[in-house]
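Lay summary. Proteins are chains of building blocks that fold into shapes, and those shapes determine what they do. In this project we predict the shape from the chain. Here is one chain we studied, written as its sequence of building blocks.
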Amino acid sequence: MSGSLFGSGLRVQAAVKRKVFVSYHHGGDQAYYNTFSNAFHDTYDVITDNSLEREIDSDNVEYVMRRVRENYITGSSCTIVLVGKDTHARKYVDWEIKATLDASHGLIGVRLPTAPVSAQNTVTVPGRLHDNIQSGYALWVSWADITGSAQACQRYIEAANAKDKWLIVNTRARRLRNG
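And here is the predicted shape, written in a compact code that computers can read:
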């Protein structure tokens, strides 16, 4: 017998385990990263916790950006930004989003329960993420929605990866300090 395992000639293909990068404020939202990573480690290759402040000891912006691209973004297909109370003011989160957009990867913003909601029912997000939510490139979902099930998370990641690349807005100057 040659060829396929099935008489019909169908081929079996293993599901691709997508690699996702999770960007977040390490000082404030580590518990949410841990929960996400533990919940989806069988479904996704979640890039491990790498605090850039500890990992890359340099004030050279270009060097740090190259390290972000090479060590964290390259090989992933999507970046998930966990948006908590102070995420909007973190320079490395901005740099990770910039590197994601430079690589034309999918982008998802996730509103954490710790993100304060204003009287106008708005949440403050990193500026570069906001630009791409407004353009229609980035998805904006709640923590409950994305962690509801592996299938829901997968649908969001696939939808983010399918977005038209011409929607990317990546024109802001890099944030140079934490707020």
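What the prediction tells us: Residues 1-8 have pLDDT under 50 and may be disordered.
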